[in-house]
Every structure is written in C-alpha cells, then in structure tokens.
C-alpha cells in the first residue's frame, strides 16, 4: 500500500498536495477547511511588510478561457498579495499550525528589496511556528510595478541576494518561487541555488490577456473601461510549467535542487507527471478555485492507486524517474522510424486525418470513394499529426519499423544503430560515429 | 370536458382543457444558446462530410455548426438558407434519423449523432426571430414565371427565381400557402403557426405574387400558362388518395388521414375536433404515424396502426415508430383491411393477417376484428388530374435531374414529380434546382 506521506526539504506533510499561495490560503477559515478536506499543506497567501495593507481593485479580478461547456481551461488574475493586516495573518497562521501539526504551513513573503525589510518580517513569521517560507519572486502584475514580485524574479542577481538575506536571517527552509516570465528558467534557478535556497517552486503565473471585449475595445477583466495584463494559470499552463520543471531537474548544476511544482495540476495524474519530471511535491490552486477543496479526495486516491499498481511505496521512488529521458533534440535517435497505422475497425471515417495530412502536411493519407482512409508509407514522415487530430483514441497509432525493414519513404532499410544529429552526415560539425 | 376517452363513437373534447396545449407542444423544443454551443462542440468538422452528402439540399453542415460554435448563429443560418430556403421547417420535420444524423460519424461511433436538426433549428430560429430573409433580388430580368402550387417545392422555386431577378406569379388551390407544411405535418412538429410565418418571411424577398383558389384543371390551364409566361413550374403535389379496396370503406367514419391532419392543423380549438374512441389507421408511412399519434393526443382511447408488411418495411422511420409506441399507439404488422363493419357508420374492422414467402404478399385467411369508430386511410397519395400533354413516369410527372418535363418551358418538382423521396427537404431541393435550370434556360 502506497504511503503518500511527504518530506519536502524537511517539511513534513500527510501527502504531497499543497495549496499554492493564492486566495484559497488567504485566511484561517479557508485553510482549516482545506486541512479538514485532506490537503497535505498550504503555502499561506503572500504577506507584505508591516503597515497599511495593499489594496485590490474593486472590479473583477479574474478573466478566463473556457471549453465549449464552460470547462475552465485557463484563468488569469490581477489580485495582489494579501490585503489583510500582517498581525491578523500571523495570528491565524499560528493558530492553524498549532491545531494541524502534521500539515505543512509555509508562508509566502514579498517585501521591498531591502535587507532591513526582510530582517523585519522573518522573525515574526518564524514565531508563528510555520514550517518554511516561500519567496514570491513571481507575481507578474501590480507588485512588479513597485519593484517586487516578478521584478525581482527577472533579475538573477536580486534573487540570489534576497535568498541569501533570508537564509542568513532565519532557520526556516527557504523556497524560492520562480516566475516563468523570463527566457531561460535555469538562470533564476541557479541564482536561487547560489543564494542558498533549499528549494525552488514554479511556475508562478504567466503574463497574459485572456480576452478582449470587442464592444468596449478593452482587455478583460475590465475595470472601468481599462484592463491590464494578469497572471495566467490553470490547465492551459501545465505544459509550460512541466518543461520548466524538467529543465531545472535535468540541468547538471541544478539537478539536486528540490522542486515544488505548480502549474495546472488538476488531477492525480498531473501531479504524477510533474513528480516524474523531478518535482518533490505539487501545489494546486486553480483546480480548487474551480471545484472546491473536495478534489483532494480524487487526487490522493488516484495517486495512491496508481502507485500501488506500479509498485511504488513512496513518492520518492518515482520522483525524477522520467528526468533521464528528457534530452536535447540533437540526441534523439534519427534511425528510429515509425509509420502511422489506422485501425480500420476503430475508424469512424470522419476524415480529419486526411484533411490535416492533405492540407497541411505530407499527403500521406489516402481516401477511397467509400471513405476508407489509409497511410501511404512512401510519404509518411511519422509526424503524429493524424494521431493528434483523430477523435478516436487509439484508432491511429505509430508503428515502429524493426531494424532491417524497408522505409518506403527513403527507400533504405531501417538501421539497427542509434544515430543522432551530432553524428549525421548532413551536420557540418558532425563527429563521425565509430 | 363534456366527454372522456371512454365516450363511444366519434366525439370532441375528450380531454381536460389544458391537456391539448401540453399534448401538442413542440416535439423538439429549440436549444438554449449554451445548449447549442455544447451540442455544436460535438461536431468533428469531418472532411467531405457524410452528413452533407446525405442532405438532399447539400447544406454545408459542418460549416454551419462551426459558425454556431463561433458565436455566429445568423451566419450559420445563411449557410443553411443559401442551400435550403425552408431550412427552418426542414429543421423541424426532416427525418434526420434517416438522413444527415444517420450517417453522422458519431452515430457510427457512439450511436449518438450530433443533433444536426436541432442545431439547424437553433440557427434558423435565431435569424428568423429578428431578420428578414437575407437574400436580395438581382436586377429585374423582365421574365415572368408561373409557379403552380405554393408548397415546399413551389416556394423554394419561387424564392430562387425571384433572387435571380425574375417575377413570379404563384398560384395555390387552397386559401393558404405552405402546402403540406401548413396542412400535412403533425402539429407538434410545427407549432406557433411556424409554416405561415415562414412563408411570409420567405416572400419578403419581393417579386413574388400569390393568388389563392387557383387549381390546374379547374381554373388554370397549362396551355394558357405556357403562352402567358416565360416558364411554368408545376408543384401540385399529390391530390388523390389510394383506396382501401376493402368492403364497406364508404361507411361514415372512414376518412383520408391527410384530411384529418389538415383539419387538425387548421383547427382554432383542438377541443372541438372530434376523434373516435377506437381509431384504426391503415398504412405504414409518416402520415399514418402522424394521424395515429395525433388521434391519441386528441384523446382517443385505443389507436392501432395496421400495416400490411413487417415493421422494418414501414415508410415511417424507427424514430417515428418509437414516437407512436411512446404515445401508446399499437402497431399491428402483417395485417391488411378486409372489411369495414357497421351499419351506415363504421363500428369495427376486419383485418386479415398476411405473409410473404417471397412470391408476393398474400392473405393467410386468419382474421382479427378490431372495434373502430374511426378509420384513417394513409396508404399513399396519387397525382390528381394529370396535366394535359405531360409525360408520366410511373404515376408521377416525368422530369429530368434538373426538373424539366416532357413539355418545353414546363418544369416540375416536389411530390408530383418523379424521383426523390416525398419529403419536404427533397421538394425544396427540386424546386431550387428547377429554378436554376429555368434561369439558365431563360438567360442563356
């Protein structure tokens, strides 16, 4: 029986599912209900410095994109950090942690980029008994205009500096939350590591405009006729987040840096995928904002069942297991040849594969008078587009040609050897394969 | 409610007042906007889509569904109406289960097709709710065409001719246009006077005059029409009804199903419409089902459809047969009428069982007798008086693929013409195609 208990950089929780720093973790009432529902931990919504709290807009804070039945696929927000007084948040954190000692309570922080500001807030957070802190270097709107959030996260030197201040001024584990609004995620991750971070968490939200009101000619969400870019999250951002997680996990210098993965985790499977790519745990936000806290039951049950099926006892046993298989394009085996195969019994003759291949790809699918669709091996480059546009799962698959079989497209037999671009004769800087 | 379902004989007001409105409400109510989006999302936008191929009017179905998805139901309607100006009615009455929806790949895959008919209705209702028909007339050609019969074929032909800039004089024998849309379709398929509203909407293109009370062979003469007009289009439908060929079919209470349906469609108050306690409908097509189900909805206690072959041979689709079953209509297959019983008015019917061993349908001699206060004949219609000089094919006017008859300058379409199923949608296609051929022949 799988054991979902998690130990992330010394922070223990009953399962690897934490709620990310966001509205669901802004107050005691929510967090208690989340813990009662079964969540393993929370990252408390970002606290700012002592003094008058920030204010939020009083119009809409969220924009969204939907599937046809209004399934929420992507959400963006222009909400800032907590707008409740610091002392109230601290009191509530202390009370909750005291009542739920087996759950993780990590506190997200964002104060001005001055050592004094960090020195001031760290002890008062430590005093609550919180398990760790997460540095919000990711928030892309509002706070970034004031030199905080993503404004820090986009400058590796600042990340390193602030992380170091924190490590020097607290005993708590320090998790650095990274912004995806950069060109190479490795740079901020390395900076966090140099500053002594115990872990990174990613991704924060992505700069975005979700829609434009074509009557008002204004981006949504619209505040009195104006809009601003917000932070994008939800299922739509998961592929972007997974790539960034994998990049850090497979990069030699950051390979051992623990990762708390965030970005569109909606079911147990999303969590398993992130963890296979090197994450130690996951943080969830949009899914609970869409469906409520109860989804944790599906997540823990699903992950546990899958682990049992695969024979994993703890999450550590599969965490990072897919990382060795993430590589550069140049190392992909060019001698691996596949061809599309259409299962005629499963085919419903919609012709989408034909339209896609004929109009936009390699003219490798034929159509007969009576709507039978077939693959012309002499044209098929195995691009997989037909598989992806086919509405019937499993109807079109890619068959691997065994070594020695003839590739009718190139009129050459399939080589039994591994051969990549670095060795390819067309590559001017190829090294001969010996 | 002076009477009840048990009242003997043929009687009105068998039900409570409110029951009629419920019973004859829309069979397939229109989609709400969100429902339409969800339904539209199920379309795969097939290549060379089977649904379009199956549509007699060749509506680009994947395209109009995509336009609904994209939030443009009016544009979807234009896609539909450019092929089928009676797309609103066809959305209601087409047997989609044997046309577009039967071949939908999701029917193949899951037994649950995209609901093309209801989506078409959503689009056309959307446009018709706030806009005139969206086509304009070409510059006047000075040509005049006579259209005889203002049913689906005639209306479709007239609209297309008008759009090409021709002037159209349309004549109909009844006091109202629409043909079977107005007089022959079950009431729950065309509620709120839709047929009449659609005719008015269609006519708003202009250039079409409509004269009622004019019938070929009575007060219209084909030769005169040919000399007065540049072209003539015959869409006169099927005026005759086949006989039962059973003893006693002249007794009171034995009627043509089409007349019953017509009375029902034109009734101001359904409670005043009399119906038998025990009704037997003879036939196996859509008209038989329409008459049987509506008898039941009017309050008949027992309604039986007698069909001489097996159910799978019935002209009525599986959906229609199920509709009958759901309403409590009994379908008695392999029976044919032998004798109508009763003294002056019908009181029962003797049906003989039939068998077909491959050498043709034969009576077995075994008789079943059913009580019957009312018997509806729905065993097919025939061309009434044949217009002079027009060649027939079988029992219909012989036409080419584009609707030309054997007479120069005379075209025909709809139920009166050869070829095609006797469906509204087929009639629309034939009228449209004849109009194109007339235009080509007149304009060179």
Question: Explain this structure to me?
Answer:
The complex is a heterodimer of chains A (434) and B (444). Chain A is of the alpha/beta class and 434 residues long. Chain A is 28% helix and 20% strand. In chain A, strand 21 and strand 22 form a beta hairpin. The two termini of chain A are 48 Å apart. By secondary structure, chain B is α/β, with parallel strands linked by helices. Chain B has 3 domains: 33-128, Fumarate Reductase Iron-sulfur Protein, Chain B, domain 2 (Orthogonal Bundle), CATH 1.10.1060.10; 144-239 and 388-443, FAD/NAD(P)-binding domain; 241-378, FAD/NAD(P)-binding domain (3-Layer(bba) Sandwich). Chain B is 35% helix and 19% strand. In chain B, helix 10 (152-163) runs parallel beside helix 17. The longest helix of chain B is centred in the C-terminal third of the chain and has 20 residues, at 424-443. Chain B is globular, with a radius of gyration of 22 Å. The A-B interface holds A 67-70, 348-352, 354-355, 367, 371, 391-392 and B 34, 37-38, 40-41, 44-50, 69, 105-106, 108-109.
How large is the count of helical segments of chain A? 12
Strand arrangement, major sheet of chain B: 4-3-2-5-19
Relative helix content of chain B: 25-40%
Beta-strand segment tally of chain B: 19
Radius of gyration of chain A: 25 Å
Largest interface: A-B, 15 and 17 residues
- Assembly category: heterodimer
CATH topology group of the largest domain in chain B: FAD/NAD(P)-binding domain
User: How many discrete structural domains of chain A?
Assistant: 2
Enzyme class (chain B): oxidoreductase
Organism (chain B): Halocynthiibacter styelae
Keywords (chain B): Oxidoreductase
Subunit structure (chain B): Heterotetramer of 2 PreA and 2 PreT subunits.
List the helices and strands and how they pair.
The complex is a heterodimer of chains A (434) and B (444).
Chain A: E1 6-8, E2 11-13, E3 17-19, H1 28-37, E4 41-47, E5 62-66, E6 72-77, H2 86-99, E7 104-109, H3 115-126, E8 132-136, H4 150-153, H5 156-169, E9 174-177, H6 186-194, E10 199-202, E11 206-208, E12 211-213, E13 218-220, E14 230-233, H7 238-250, E15 259-262, H8 268-276, E16 281-284, H9 286-291, H10 296-310, E17 338-342, H11 352-360, E18 365-367, E19 373-375, H12 385-389, E20 396-400, E21 406-407, E22 412-413
Parallel strand pairs in A: 3-4, 3-16, 4-7, 7-8, 8-9, 9-10, 10-15, 15-16
Antiparallel strand pairs in A: 1-2, 5-6, 6-14, 11-14, 12-13, 17-20, 18-19, 21-22
Chain B: E1 10-11, H1 17-23, H2 33-41, H3 50-54, H4 61-69, H5 73-81, H6 87-93, H7 100-103, H8 105-110, H9 116-128, E2 144-148, H10 152-163, E3 167-172, H11 180-183, H12 194-203, E4 208-212, H13 222-228, E5 231-234, E6 240-241, E7 254-256, H14 257-266, E8 275-276, E9 278-283, H15 286-298, E10 302-306, H16 318-326, E11 330-332, E12 335-341, E13 348-356, E14 361-371, E15 374-378, E16 381-382, E17 392-393, E18 396-397, E19 410-412, H17 424-443
Helix pairs in contact in B: 2-4, 2-9, 4-5, 4-9, 5-9, 6-9, 10-17, 14-15, 15-16
Domain Dihydroprymidine dehydrogenase (chain B): 22-129
Domain FAD/NAD(P)-binding (chain B): 144-431
Protein name (chain B): dihydrouracil dehydrogenase (NAD(+))
